[in-house]
Write a structure and sequence with these properties.
alpha+beta; Tetrahydropterin Synthase, Chain A; 10 helices; about 50% helix; rod-shaped; transmembrane; Protein HflK; membrane; hydrolase; Band7/mec-2_domain
Length: about 400
């Protein structure tokens, strides 16, 4: 008979025909379960069979574990460390014999804090620092420290920051990343052009002893050494000073100091720029003047040498024929004078009075005639003096 066919109401699965006062009790439920699972356990053993099935399923489900690729599994056998599981599928004893605690091995964790401390020059400074770290050993991370690893790391990081900050002056701590005080050297072309003047080279100033990057590196090394002593199973990947500033009570005074320092730096930069612009020009002018002086000296020496050679040749000719040479020199001098000055010719044999055109003769022409005549006379006397020498 189908369940939806008319009957005595016992075959209705929705129990719509059940009388309102006849609610199923615990005995009815157990009886129905026994009737349905009696074939497996045989009558009264049905409950035991059900429990056994549940136990088997629970053991099967708890006898393996899957460790994610970013995790490491720490296996405890009866509460004692047994082994560490790598990422993948692993079999194990069911709980509570073995339990697995999964730890994120590749996860980047961070701890931040803000501390106020004294520097070596007895100034108060406020430092906001951030520490990023990873778990290098899952077993040590879980069981080597008595308290939470994050709290231990925070306290160790604060101690490291106090050690580094307390050993430096405030100027080094407030120094921006990579700040350098240096003098820009002169261009190579200018130095090469002024090599003859032997100008001293510009030596860069000393770089600041420590910058913020150096202090952060020192803090990371001290913190890592402390965690290694604690055997914490942690590796520090980065330490950064996110905000380094004086306390609010003295912030105005420090702002004034920083403004003065910036003005000083700007003035120095302007001076260096001016020096870089003026020094090469001055060196170029010095090189040009030196070259002109050398050229003028060479020209004067060459002219004097030529004049001396010409005089020696004339002297040789004068010794050979004094009268002829003296006459030739006089004629050449008169020819030179007459060719460069205005001339007046008298064709009357001295019978007419002639007015010289002095208004057309300049003082320079008259002086030139006198100087040429004097030079000719001097040359004649010098040659005569040379002839009288033994």
């Amino acid at each position: 008979m189908a369940w939806n066919e008319p009957g005595n109401g016992q075959r209705d699965p929705w129990n719509k025909n059940r009388q309102p006062g006849n609610k199923p009790g615990l005995d009815d439920v157990l009886r129905q379960l026994r009737n349905r699972f009696g074939k497996l356990g045989g009558g009264a053993g049905g409950i035991f069979t059900i429990l056994l099935a549940f136990v088997i399923v629970w053991i099967a489900m708890s006898s393996f574990t899957i460790v994610d690729a970013r995790q490491a599994g720490v296996v405890l056998r009866f509460g004692k460390y047994s082994r560490t599981l790598q990422p993948g599928f692993h079999l194990k004893f069911p709980g509570p014999i073995e339990t697995v605690t999964k730890v994120g091995a590749t996860e980047i964790r961070s701890v931040s804090d803000k501390v106020r401390m004294l520097t070596s020059d007895e100034n108060i400074i406020s430092v906001d620092f951030n520490v990023q770290y990873q778990v290098s050993d899952s077993y040590k991370y879980l069981f080597s420290l008595s308290g939470p690893p994050e709290e231990t790391l925070r306290q160790a990081a604060e101690a490291a920051v106090r050690t580094v900050v307390g050993a430096n002056v405030m100027d080094n701590i407030l120094t921006s990343q990579g700040e350098v005080d240096a003098v820009a050297p002169a261009p190579a072309s200018s130095v090469a052009a002024a090599s003859s003047t032997a100008a001293p080279a510009v030596v860069p100033a000393a770089v600041k002893a420590q910058t913020r990057d150096t202090l952060q590196q020192q803090t990371r090394e001290i913190l890592q050494a402390t965690l290694d002593e604690y055997d914490a199973g942690l590796v520090v990947t980065d330490v950064s000073f996110q905000n380094v500033a004086p306390p609010q009570e003295v912030k105005d005074a420090f702002d004034d100091v920083n403004a003065a320092r910036e003005d000083k730096q700007g003035t120095e930069n302007n001076a260096r720029a001016y020096a870089s612009q003026v020094v090469p020009v001055a060196r170029g002018d010095a090189s040009r003047i030196a070259a002109e002086a050398q050229g003028y000296a060479a020209a004067r020496v060459a002219t004097a040498t030529g004049d001396a050679s010409r005089f020696n040749l004339i002297l040789k000719e004068y010794k050979a024929a004094p009268d002829v040479t003296r006459r030739r020199l006089w004629l050449e001098t008169v020819e030179d004078v007459m060719s460069n000055n205005p001339k007046v010719l008298d064709g009357s044999g001295g019978r007419n009075m002639i007015y010289l055109p002095l208004d057309r003769a300049t003082g320079k022409d008259i002086q030139g005639v006198g100087s040429v005549m004097q030079s000719a006379a001097g040359s004649d006397s010098n040659l005569g003096g040379k002839e009288k020498q033994p």
